[in-house]
Every structure is written in C-alpha cells, then in structure tokens.
Amino acid sequence: MALLSAPTKIAGAVSRLAGGIREDLDAAIERDPATSSRVEMALASPGLHAIWTHRVAHRLWTSGHKLPARLLSQAARAATGVEIHPGATIGRRFFIDHGMGVVIGETAEVGDDVMLYHGVTLGGRSMEPVKRHPTLGDGVTVGAGAKVLGNIVLGHGAQVGANAVVTKDVPSMAVATGIPAKIRMPEAGIDPQQALYDEPALWI
C-alpha cells in the first residue's frame, strides 16, 4: 500500500498544481483585455511568472529553506521586475498587471482575487520583526503607483486609486484615493463596481 500511495500523492500534487495554473491564467485573461490566449498569457506575463515563482519560494520559506527561497525570489525580481518576499502570503487568482516595480513585503497577506497594477508597494512602517505589512482582503484592487504601508487592513472589495498613499485601514467596498488617502463609500443604491467609473484616480 505504501508503494501505491506515493504515485497517488504525486498525481494529486500535479493535478492541484495544474488546476492552480489554469485558475491563475483564467483570472489574468479575465482582467487583461489585451489577450484572450492562455498560451500568450503563460509565456508573456511577468506578473504571472512572479506569482508562480513566489508560490515555490513561499513553500521553501515555510519549510525552513529560507536562503534558497530568498535566492529564488531575487532571481524572479531580476527577471520580472516584481519583488515578492517569500514570506508573504498570497491567495488564489492573484494577478499583477504589467508587473514592473511591484514590491510586496515579508508579512503582507493577500486574499483571493486581488489585483495590483504596476508600481504598487505593500510596504512596512516598522524596523521591528513584527507584522508590519498590509493585509488585503478578497477582491481588492490597488491602482498603479499606490503605496499601502504598515500593518493595516484593506477590507474585502476595497479599491485603492492610482498613486494613493494609504496608511490607515480601508473598510470593505470603500474607495481610497489621494495623498494621504481619503476614504469614501459608494452612494447607497449604487453598485460599488459601477461606482468606480466615477473615480478617475482608480484608472491608469
């Protein structure tokens, strides 16, 4: 039975890996109108290359192989322009559009279905070895060049405008724009997704 279980475990791991890759590809295609091809996205998206490498580096990091994890993350940084610390926790269907200049710190936590544009920083505000980077809930979008700093929480569905500087919590479904970021909620009765079209700073 032990001999049979090893191939079964490997097959299960390969199946999960393939499913995760397809999920990432489909999420990327849904958010990027410039392509409709899985093959093109897989070959030409630095954001996907960065997150796929991070998933391997994070596994190494959490299993105690910290130096190889850091070296792998640095190789990904050189290749993609995206720096994700291997200690960061990233959810499913994560997508970084364009990729270049994104930095995600060690204690950042990112939920499912999150999207970042280029130049985004999920940075820290402490030099102490504590939780010092942001937590992003599911469905968060962060616009180009935005800086989200410190041990703060962006609630589910929150939207951060391009070039905003966010240092305080953002409630679920709220919009944060400006320097320092000001927070507003969509008007009652208006679909939050549709309301984003009224906020030019969210777009690049």
From TrEMBL:
**Pfam family, any one:** Hexapep
Write the protein's name.
Serine acetyltransferase
Which pathway features in its UniProt record? Amino-acid biosynthesis; L-cysteine biosynthesis; L-cysteine from L-serine: step 1/2
Query: What is the enzyme's class at the highest EC level?
Result: transferase
Q: Which reaction does it catalyse?
A: L-serine + acetyl-CoA = O-acetyl-L-serine + CoA
What keywords does the record list, in alphabetical order?
Acyltransferase, Amino-acid biosynthesis, Cysteine biosynthesis, Repeat, Transferase
Residue ranges of the TM segments: none
**What EC designation does it have?**
2.3.1.30
Q: Which GO terms describe its molecular function?
A: serine O-acetyltransferase activity
The UniProt family comment states: Belongs to the transferase hexapeptide repeat family.
GO annotations of cellular component type: cytoplasm
